[in-house]
Amino acid sequence: MKKSRIMSESEQDDFNGPADGNNNSLLFLSFAPAIASNIIYSSCFCGWEVLAKFEFFILDQLRGNYLNIKESETRRCFQPTKTEWGLAKLLSLEIFNDLSNGYLVDDCCILGAEVYVTKSTGRMECFSLVDTPDRNSYTWDIENFSTLGPSRYESKHFIVQGTTWRIDIYPKGTSKSRGGLAAFLSWVKNGGQDSDDEVYAVYEFRIKDRLGNILQGYTDTAKHKFCSSSQSFGWPEFISRKDLEDNSKNFLVEDRLILEAEIISMSVTKSLP
């Protein structure tokens, strides 16, 4: 819940000094997060922002009419660093204290404000950056590779810094390749993630032999922002069909292909409630 309140210069003596130095009363509109009737400022509200136009009114108690005074023709932005907007010159004290005008009757005045909210936002995000995360690689030992069809095959899920990933391959390639091995890194979103969450990752794919050595010339690096609309990114042809079938290159010893993915660095942007 958000709540507005009107502040006179007696509440806000340090805004522009008492009155404004020219015998004019001050009036301000304050807009702040509120719980029940108490205005409080808490870190959980740090992302709120309200765009609004507003005007003040003072009742002529003798004639039953209101004097309306617009604060501005433009929208004001209320946020944690600027919770108050107002007029340093609302009405001169001479006019205000003139009893014939009806603004002050029995030492009492009636005033108010009308607020027109044009946009309200409250989105907060948490950004974290991890350079060289712990346990940042996953090795997929793919057996009976030659028997695999043209469909997509998925590795087991692996977790790096709380983010879930998997490797996807197309052994016969995709429509964008010429029958070679297509390999992709996919971000696996879980139920606790917001649709606006994003992960930016720099990662490397490489082929290894049975002894765990990296085959020279068959590593590649990519970077990508993973999000709801783009959860997978990689190489339509990571290894050509010709190289795969070349026994001298030792890709498929005993019909096994060993593919490794390493997350070199990553950043995570999470939407907060």
Automatic annotation (TrEMBL):
Listed SUPFAM superfamilies: TRAF domain-like
SMART domains, per database record: MATH
Organism superkingdom: Eukaryota
Signal sequence extent: none
One Pfam family of this chain: MATH_2
Domain named MATH: residues: 1-115, 135-263
Protein name: TRAF-like family protein
Source organism (scientific name): Corchorus olitorius
Lineage: Eukaryota, Viridiplantae, Streptophyta, Embryophyta, Tracheophyta
